[in-house]
Amino acid sequence: MYDIVIIGGGPVGSYLAGRLAEAGDKVLTLERKGELEEQVCCTGIVSWECVNSFAIDKNVILKWTDSATIFSPSGRLLRLQQEKTQACILNRAAFNLAMARQAQSKGVKYVLNCLVRDVQISHNGVSIKATWQEEKLTFKARAAVIATGFDSNFGERLGLGKVSDFALGAQAEVETNSLEGIEVYLGRKVAPGFFAWLVPLQPKRALVGLLSRHSPGLYLRKLISSLLTQQKITSVMEKISYRGVSLKPPARTYGLRLVIVGDAAGQVKPVTGGGIYYGLLSADIAANILHQALKTNDLSAKNLANYEREWKQKLGRELQIAYYARKLYEHLGDKQIDGLFDMMSSNGIVEALLKAEDLSFDWHAKAILRALKLTGRSILSKPFRRRGLLK
Ligand SMILES: Cc1cc2nc3c(=O)[nH]c(=O)nc-3n(C[C@H](O)[C@H](O)[C@H](O)COP(=O)(O)OP(=O)(O)OC[C@H]3O[C@@H](n4cnc5c(N)ncnc54)[C@H](O)[C@@H]3O)c2cc1C
User: Is residue 11 lining ligand 1, measured as CB closer than 6 Å?
Assistant: First the structure.
């Protein structure tokens, strides 16, 4: 019997598996993909803070970046440039493999091509039913971790509720002319309620993608055609890939002998849809709580509730404020977004945010609240005041 079975060998599952094995627990990871370095629909941008905190293998970093240019619906632009390097772009498939290799070097066993179909939990243990090369297998463990990303309903089936809000992502790799840095495009015709991006990977290669509540492929094809006309890109290298992004956690992220981490737990920045750093931060917390629970043989829901308490202590307020900001942004029309651009550039709001070092790649609440304060008692700040988030 294993101490823990981790379902899902993405970055969050692999990191958690490695932490537990390092602490001496017997860990098995089940992954439905046949190869760990299979392409992932993800841009792979993470902060310097994330790279340092989790000692991300430098070999998987394609590029460092310290700026981004944001285009308003009417084409006005805002350049955000910070003195210190803020973020880097990972080779996302190589990152998955590197995280799994690290876990394997600490003793974690992986079964690939293994699609988990059912998880049964009792007071005596966990039983996981899976299909491996058409064979039906059952794995037994003392506890299970759901790290299956956006694309699963285990949380709901196990009575923890479902990710209660999400967006759809679409992305493709393209050939570019000369792209200096990251470009972000706003507007209801481009990516209604969300944003689109063009992110350089290597000389002449970039990722173009967007998030939307519906028809992401349709919007992305329109954007690609516009970028081709502008000669920002010269051709499309790969067909469009799709994946969902969790925006709001399920009601509960723990149960008897069970925790949920990463995208499956909605540990994702609601403004940008970035989930790698928050997932890893939460996996760290899960590793400490689970290891202790295994040691004391107390895998009760009451004890594992400490996991949720701790990750919400770290990320809860951030998720709440950023989620309200996201909902607010979704209601803005193109004219209002253009108006915001004017206000941000002419009132020195951007400079003030950059100077106060509030504009962090990972932590958005401070910048959101400061920006709202700088806009005065505007209609934008009302919902935040009503909920006591802004004085
Ligand atoms: C278009 C797009 C762009 C993004 N860009 C960024 C970005 O720039 N920066 C960032 O931080 N985040 C980004 N994200 C989000 C990021 O990709 C996720 O937050 C991250 O992958 C979460 O990691 P995870 O390990 O929780 O889940 P995943 O990476 O989804 O891994 C889950 C794993 O579980 C496996 N699995 C699922 N179900 C089963 C099953 N039943 N049995 C066995 N295995 C199973 C899957 O095959 C997968 O390997 C983006 C997302 C999208 C859609």
Answer: yes
